[in-house]
Amino acid sequence: MASSTTGRRAPARLPARRRPRPSAVARSAATPYLFILPAFLVYGAFALYPLGRAAQFSLFEWKGFGSSTFVGLRNYLDLAGDADFRAAIANALILIVFYAVIPLVVGLVLAAVLRRGQVRGMGFFRTVVFLPQVIALVVVAVAWRQIYSPNGLLNEALRAVGLDVLTRGWLGDPGTALAAVGFIGTWVEMGLVMLLLLSGMSRIPAEQFEAARLDGANAVQEFFAITLPAVRGEITVALVLTIIAALKTFDLVYMTTSGGPGNSTTVPSFEAYFRAFELREVGSASAVAIVLTLLIFVINVGVSRIGEREA
Amino acid sequence: MRVSRVETTMNYVILGGFALFALIPVLTILLTSVSAPLGEPDGFYLSNYVEAWTVGGFGRSLGNSVVVAAIVVSLATVLAILAGYAFGTMRFRGSTALFYLFLLGLMIPAEATIIPLFFDLRSLGLTDTYLAIALPQVAQSIAFGTFWLRAQFRSMPTSLIEAAALDGAGPMQALVRILVPASRPAIVTMLVLVFMWTWNEFLIALIMAPGGKLRTAPLGLANFQGQYTSETALLAAGAVIVALPTVILFLVLQRHFIRGMLEGAAK
Predict the structure, then answer these.
(1) What does the pLDDT look like over A85-130, one tens digit per residue?
(2) Fewest CB atoms within 10 Å of the CB: A172, A300, B97, B201?
(3) Does A285 sit within 8 Å of B168, measured CB to CB?
(4) B7 in contact with A, Cβ within 8 Å
(5) Does the beta-carbon distance from B112 to A24 stay under 8 Å?
(6) Contact status of A47 with chain B (Cβ, < 8 Å)
(7) Between residues 126 and 155 of chain B, which touch chain A (CB distance below 8 Å)?
(8) Could you read off the pLDDT of B164-216 as tens digits, one per residue?
């Protein structure tokens, strides 16, 4: 086999004037591109290209069939004065409170308490609190519709404790519908956020807490001085994930309220869908989708930046 | 660290309360699914599942979901392994910029791509096909998979690939014979997450299959809800049927789910 060994060594003795090979096994400079190409073709054709088309569509007025008219930025300008669109943006911001802020605050406190104790059954606990993440949102919506219905669990519970005055059809009441939808989001995201924070806190060395305790720090001081700074990274990740989930809300709204009563629970995704397929305003729908995309980018980058700077 | 008994008790109260909060909707729907259908006396009705299955046409919609999931999972996995391999183990011009382009896919909301895609595919006569439902999801999963597997392949010692080179392996052989077998856990994690996302996907399936014949399981349930709003027991049984495949998979492979969701997010 000696001859083949020298044969294999031969390329290594080539003069080093050429660019280094992409890797030990990839000899040609084209190899990495060939490996990426199939993925890129599908990704380009079914994600990047349509995104460009959405930007293009947003500059036209089009009913989804027949001819279209170029209107420049008018679809965007119209959105600024559109009551339904403004309601959708305002509602999305309120949903962020339910999807992201509440799970984060509650999750931080509970995870900080749990971190200190050696408790049994953590495996079971992790399974149970993660469950909402794996159930299809359509199914989640069916479950919560039953809980919120006039004779559902929530109203029964209120009657049982004598709070009959509070009972109502939670999803049909304009005053409570958005909060009712938002709380479903809280239920979905809570476990994920909590497990993220717990895994971050479990990496803090115990000596840090013991040292703080020797210095006379109480539980609250300990939380702000040690725990909170140590999980900045996890907080950032949790916020990015849950804020995006809030902004992308569609299934829950479609299945529980269809944006109503009135426009009290409409959200950008639902507006985009509704405009494209019910109102037949494809240009306006595309403008909504582009605004939503930009919103997600800006918030994502913003939260990550803040997280990095403070870490 | 010593922990007082009060504190331990409090921990259990928190854990218990939290678990209950997560379980109540699940238990509600399970109990409703075996409760009396409209007009029947109280009792335990396992027959609701049979009824829901037939009336809701779940045989067909679950079948559609299986086909779509099979296409998305297999295609996305193969393509993401190839791309992740290049990004994770090779040096080449433009790799960072290209990688960021793939990362972008993690942020693009489906509604921004699926509306123009629908109209473009419709003019080609391609809506209401499995591929129209599957390919946009393949694209989304490629973005995640490339990112996830790049990290996995990067974490492997370069000596593995150098050893493969000494054995005369080409880039494809090194990937298939050495890197893929050594990355099985990460690949399985990607498989289960992509399966779950695809199974649960709603918006893409809703828009791409307006004809109704290719309704996937979540759409079957939405349609069922539209037609039988007051049949809460049957609706609940249908909901359990739709949720069951991902829940079972989760219970069996939960390490992969939790690891994937927590680490995938953190990377």
Answers:
(1) 999 999 999 999 999 999 999 999 888 888 776 678 888 888 999 9
(2) B97
(3) no
(4) yes
(5) no
(6) yes
(7) 135-136, 138-140, 142-143, 146
(8) 999 999 999 999 999 999 999 999 999 999 999 999 999 999 999 999 899 99
